[in-house]
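Sat 14:20. Reprocessing the chain from the morning session after the first attempt stalled halfway. Input below, unchanged.
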Amino acid sequence: MNLKLDEKVRAETLEWCRAFIDHNCIFRTPGAVTPQLLHPDGRTNTWQFYLQVATLDQGFCARIGLLFWDRFNSAPAGERFQICGCETGGVPLACALQASAYSSGFRVNVFSIKKAPKKYGLKNWLEGRAFEDSPVMLVDDVIGGGDTLQAQAKRLVEFGFTLYPQAFAIASCKHDKIASIKLGNQIVEPVFLYGPDDFARSEGKYAARYNRPPRFGGTIV
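Finished this time. Tokens:
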């Protein structure tokens, strides 16, 4: 398959997706005086990505699929991979990447891995159909400290899967790129399109860049 974008189209698509995230997918604490957003580890922050506003948007999905396959389309036939979306943010992303592949005339297998097994029925960790003879690329919407990626990579290895040497996320919310994940003789390098400095993360920085106040594009109920 040949899905390489020319340089101009690649740059325009990267900027479109970056701007979509900046305008719609970041919740900024009003005034940014006191951190109000609670993280699972107990920390608080003044801003937070909500990238499912993007990964559930048709226009964004079409473009992120182009950017993904532009980067990962050159793997030889013997090194093709299947995609595993990390629950929950990686699941719509994985579906978008699969749809993009299908519309371009080739197929890629996709499944998802849960944060915890179901407590009923088959009590599965995995959703969909996974093949043990094909390397697995983990995808998520955002990479933070890498705990989710580390845990799910370890789990897949324990289940008997081989990991693709790279994992993919749309953005990192950390300035320092997380180190490669090492599991036995397998090494996985996290790859992402954007870092935190690609976005105006406070109300003030957004207003200075765009000459208007920010508006969060998600629904809060």
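The chain is about 30% helix and 20% strand.
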